[in-house]
Amino acid sequence: MVLKDRFRFAELDKLVVRKREGAEQMALDAHDVAQAQHEGPLNRLEAKLQEAHDASQISDEPTLVAALQDFVVQLCLGAAVTKGA
Predict the structure, then answer these.
(1) Could you report the per-residue pLDDT of 9-28, keeping only the tens digit for each?
(2) Cα separation, 72 vs 65, whole angstroms
(3) Which of 28, 46, 51, 71 could make a disulfide contact with 32, Cβ separation 3.0–4.6 Å?
(4) What is residue 22's DSSP assignment?
(5) Is the dihedral of CA 33, 35, 40, 44 positive or negative?
């Protein structure tokens, strides 16, 4: 429950209990799917996700494609040489 505590998402308790009881396959009743129950927490989590994305220094686009391709080619060539020996 570390993530629940870290992100203050208490609603996870109910979902975890449901999963442990094997009830995740059963249909949800109207109370379970009520917008008021899930909309607020979902919006909070989406906002936190967006904040993390905005603060991230990771590029949205890959920057090392050529280096990765070269690495894979070198691995393949090394494997081919080893098999031929």
Answers:
(1) 767 777 777 778 876 676 66
(2) 11
(3) 28
(4) T
(5) positive
**Quick one: which of 38, 34, 1, 39 has its CA closest to 17?**
1
Distance from C-alpha of 31 to C-alpha of 27, rounded to nearest angstrom? 11
Tell me, what's the pLDDT at 30? 67
Residue ranges in the chain modelled with pLDDT below 70? 1-4, 7-8, 10, 23-24, 26-30, 32-39, 84-85
- Domain boundaries defined on the chain: 1-58
3-class secondary-structure state, position 11? coil
Tokens coding 49: 């996700």
C-alpha to C-alpha distance for 40 and 62, rounded to whole angstroms: 34
